[in-house]
């Protein structure tokens, strides 16, 4: 990546806003990266605040321009999560990490140590732009240096974009293999209210969560309808 496709800021409200402005106002190319050393207001899915201090966080936002139909927009969340997982694997010395649909990277105890957020812009029938933001809690990576973590995240998100180019089936299969929720019973709390209960069968080719009820009914949950997931203790 050349210097013209990477921007770094010492302090900013958040990385996503800068990357979105770059993409929309200056036509930032696919793969353009914004790195922020200190985010004032780091927000994830549904605007929820990232809980870890900025001095112990690595964060960046990447511009993607994927060739996806509009009804496949949720695949961006899955590919971004796979990218973040790819980033941490060489940094953790073999520590067990996995994914929680749709946005979380978790450790062996299922503590959240990373997250992604996808801001997807739609045109007529297709995705025209996606800005993917990733955050990692450096203490969970044995105090990994921020610069090393950022470099790994850039490479990881390049791999995530590659998953999208490989197609929906490839994204789905790879994600299901990495998701710690697959095969577990849960309640998906929905927005603005309501809930769906069942066992996670996987994700469909649109990136939606698939839950199978005790009667065999399959419910599909899009990312933007989810409040939270409550896993049933085994």
Features:
12 strands; 4 helices; 2 domains; 234 residues; globular; SH3 type barrels; alpha+beta; 25% helix; five-stranded antiparallel beta sheet; BirA Bifunctional Protein, domain 2
Characterization of the model:
The protein is an alpha+beta fold and 234 residues long. The chain has 2 domains: 3-178, BirA Bifunctional Protein, domain 2; 185-231, SH3 type barrels. 25% of the residues lie in helices and 35% in strands. It has 4 helices and 12 strands. The strands form 2 sheets. Strands 1-2-3-7-6-5-4 form a 7-stranded mixed β-sheet, with helices on both faces. The longest helix has 21 residues, at 146-166. The radius of gyration is 17 Å and the shape is globular. The chain starts with 5 loop residues before the first strand and ends with a strand. The relative contact order is 0.15. The mean pLDDT is 95.
Structural class category: alpha+beta
Strand coverage percent: 25-35%
* Low-confidence regions: none
Task: Report the sheet with the most strands, covering strand number, pairing sense and barrel closure.
Answer: 7 strands, mixed
Tally of contiguous helical segments: 4
Distance between the termini: 46 Å
Give the topology.
Elements: E1 6-12, H1 15-26, E2 33-39, E3 57-64, H2 75-88, E4 98-100, E5 104-106, E6 112-123, E7 126-137, H3 146-166, H4 168-178, E8 185-190, E9 195-203, E10 209-212, E11 218-221, E12 226-231
Parallel strand pairs: 1-2
Antiparallel strand pairs: 2-3, 3-7, 4-5, 5-6, 6-7, 8-9, 8-12, 9-10, 10-11
């Amino acid at each position: 990546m050349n210097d013209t496709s990477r921007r770094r800021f010492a302090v900013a409200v958040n990385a996503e806003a800068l990357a979105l402005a770059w993409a929309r106002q200056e036509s930032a190319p696919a793969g353009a990266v914004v790195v922020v050393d200190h985010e004032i207001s780091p927000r994830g899915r549904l605007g929820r605040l990232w809980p870890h201090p900025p001095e112990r966080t690595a964060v960046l936002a990447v511009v993607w321009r994927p060739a996806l139909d509009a009804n496949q927009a949720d695949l961006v969340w899955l590919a971004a999560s796979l990218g973040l997982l790819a980033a941490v694997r060489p940094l953790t010395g073999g520590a067990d990490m996995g994914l929680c649909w749709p946005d979380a990277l978790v450790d062996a105890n299922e503590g959240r140590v990373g997250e992604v957020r996808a801001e997807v812009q739609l045109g007529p029938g297709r995705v025209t732009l996606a800005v993917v933001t990733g955050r990692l809690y450096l203490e969970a990576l044995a105090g990994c240096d921020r610069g090393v973590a950022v470099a790994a995240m850039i490479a990881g998100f390049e791999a995530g974009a590659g998953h999208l180019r490989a197609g929906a089936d490839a994204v789905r299969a790879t994600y299901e293999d990495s998701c710690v929720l697959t095969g577990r019973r849960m309640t998906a709390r929905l927005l603005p209210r309501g809930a769906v209960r069942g066992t996670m069968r996987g994700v469909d080719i649109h990136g939606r969560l698939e839950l199978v009820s005790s009667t065999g009914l399959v419910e599909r949950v899009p990312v933007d309808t989810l409040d939270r997931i409550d896993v049933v203790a085994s």
